[in-house]
Amino acid sequence: MSEKNSDPLADSCFENQTHIMSIYPTSTEPRHPFPRIVYMGTPEFAVEPLKALLAEGFNIVAVITAPDKPAGRGKKVQSSAVKVFAVEQGIQVLQPEKLKDPGFLELLQNLKPDLQVVVAFRMLPESVWKMPPLGTFNLHASLLPQYRGAAPINHAIINGETESGVTTFFIDDKIDTGKILFREKVEIPLNYTAGDLHDKLMNTGAKLVVKTVASIISGDWKEIPQDALVNPGEILHEAPKIFKENCQINWNHKGQQVQNFIRGLSPVPTAYSWLTTDDGPLLNVKIFSSSYIPENHSFAPGTIVIPDKKTLAVAVKDGYISIHSLQLPGKNKVDAPSFLNGYKDISRYRFVNE
Predict the structure, then answer these.
(1) Are residues 93 and 87 in contact, defined by beta-carbon separation less than 8 angstroms?
(2) Which residues of 54-77 are buried (b: 16+ CB within 10 A; e: fewer)?
(3) Peptide bond into 67 cis (omega under 30)
(4) Contact criterion met (CB below 8 Å) for 50 and 39
(5) Closest CA to 44 of 84, 92, 72
(6) Is residue 284 included in any domain, yes or no?
(7) Exposed end of the chain (fewer CB within 10 Å): N or C?
(8) What is the CATH number of the domain that holds 69?
(9) 58 contacts: CB under 8 Å, gap ≥ 6
(10) pLDDT tens digit string along 3-50?
(11) Any idea what the Cα angle at residue 46 is, between residues 41 and 47, rounded to 5°?
């Protein structure tokens, strides 16, 4: 880890992994040199840490992930990204519908997990997270205790944060409140989208998961209560799940706020607005990328301004949002020049708050 991103919680080494063997009963059978790890995760974000653990030779005895489900326009049954990778690696996969199901709990118990690693999964019942003797830890995509919840990456960008990070912590009976093991900070460039930050934290998180596992195995770690990391007067931001109704752009907001909102929802779940004329229908338009241009003007918020054939600008209180890529209902995503070529009378339209 670089000195630039150092964190008080990150200052530990993890050598001398041999004493952990004492947790195993005496046996004449050959054993893997590392404890038995059960890995839990579902989306792409959880694949990279699993890859990293396998690359370091850790003993992943099973993966637990979401059941296969229909997805996409054709509603074709699809497996999670973690399952696809685990199957490729020949790792046993469990896909319980309910984590409290007695049959699943028996299967999990029979795996004899020493440690459980959770990345982008669901809330675990106590009967699951208390099972392994070395505990169960989670990787969270924020610098806890900031941005507890299901969508920390989106909310960090929406709020205009200039730094974020990843945290590993032992799971307890509440959501994202357990004692912290390690944190790693990353910078958020001004033009970053949620997708950009997702990829950066995915890679940073993979390294932190490896470090955390190695530290737990060696016994070289300490728990830090989250309250101890809150500075006097610091406001804690939450990161609740984002639904479609939360994704509509409000053109009455200041330009940088609108720009952060679009960045924070790109590429998914995607910010949207309503495009209309005085006598026309409302068209739901998804906006994927944009930039903010500060400027004084007299246009009402939502007014479309076309300074040239390649620029689609929308007025906000203190300037314009220049839209770079967007998508109309039933159409493919296009750039601004392509959109303008298809709407010769675009000056008749405006974006409105429904």
Answers:
(1) yes
(2) beeebebbbbbbbeeeeeeeeeee
(3) no
(4) yes
(5) 84
(6) yes
(7) C
(8) 3.40.50.170
(9) 34, 37, 210, 213
(10) 334 343 443 333 333 222 223 333 334 456 789 999 999 999 999 999
(11) 115
Whether this prediction's pTM lies above 0.85 is answered by yes
Task: Let me know if 218 is exposed, middle or buried by CB neighbors in 10 A (0-12, 13-18, 19+).
Answer: middle
Distance CA 156, CA 237 (A): 9
**Each residue of 191-215: pLDDT tens digit?**
999 999 999 999 999 999 999 999 9
Residue 180, burial from CB neighbour count under 10 angstroms (0-12, 13-18, 19+):
buried
Q: According to the model, what pLDDT value does residue 32 have? A: 65
**Amino acid identity at 245:** E
| Residue count (the chain) | 354
DSSP 8-state symbol, 7: -
User: Which element (helix H / strand E) includes 322?
Assistant: strand 319-327
Contact indicator for 284, 270 with CB cutoff of 8 Å: no
**Which of 141, 142, 129, 149 shows the shortest CA–CA distance to 64?**
129
Residue 283 and residue 150 share a domain:
no
State the residue range of the domain holding 119. 8-229
222 closest CA partner among 144, 170, 146, 165? 170
Residue 295 in contact with residue 311, Cβ under 8 Å? no
